[in-house]
Specification:
Elements lengths: L2 E4 L4 E5 L5 E4 L4 E8 L2 E6 L4 E4 L25 H9 L17 E8 L5 E7 L9 H13 L4 E8 L12 H6 L4
Parallel strand pairs: 8-9
Antiparallel strand pairs: 1-4, 2-3, 2-6, 4-5, 5-6, 7-8
Length: 179
């Protein structure tokens, strides 16, 4: 994808791969390079790669993605819904979801004594020093907490065992031209 657009309002983005907040000004031209999972990766005219959250999609002329609906949950186990949500989370530099990339170690749901469910997700990063870890953690947490009956989310970045390409699915390898 490569779509040029102009920011219609000021927006705060996240610098890739460092994770720092970056102010982007209305009227500034950007090139949308990735639009997956409800967030956008853009490149500024200065050459910076920046992630724009889906809640700010209107700033680049796009519609915000709706959160998961309770209707989609009918009759399915919660852990399946969690995995579905994880498949909507993308590394902002790689057009493959974090499940297919092999970044997710585990996802579990456990009942809470006061009712509802606690979801625990453990995932890793493609590189230990990647500044996008907290950004991905927050995105996973937001999407999991949006599921019906989920009252708590414990999303952890774990670096052991470290990620390597052997964790990728065949579909991911094929999509990235590694097969």
């Amino acid at each position: 994808m490569r779509e040029e657009t102009v920011l219609t309002r000021d927006v705060e983005g996240t610098a890739i791969p460092y994770g720092d907040k970056v102010p982007l000004k209305a009227g500034g031209p950007v090139i949308i390079t990735q639009a997956l999972g409800g967030s956008y990766t853009v490149v500024t005219m200065q050459g910076y790669m920046v992630r724009i959250d889906g809640t700010d999609a209107d700033a680049i002329g796009k519609e915000a993605v709706a959160p998961p609906s309770a209707q989609a949950a009918t009759g399915r186990p919660l852990v399946d819904l969690v995995w579905d949500q994880l498949r909507t989370c993308y590394d902002p530099e790689i057009p493959v979801d974090i499940v297919e990339l092999g970044l997710v170690h585990s996802a579990e749901a456990t009942p809470l004594p006061e009712g509802g469910q606690k979801v625990t997700v453990k995932f890793t990063l493609t590189a230990p020093g990647c500044g996008m870890g907290d950004v991905l953690r927050q995105e996973i947490e937001r999407k999991v907490l949006g599921l019906p009956d989920v009252k708590e989310a414990d999303v952890q970045v774990v670096l052991d065992p470290p990620w390597d390409q052997s964790r990728m699915s065949d579909a991911a390898r094929l999509q990235l031209g590694l097969m």
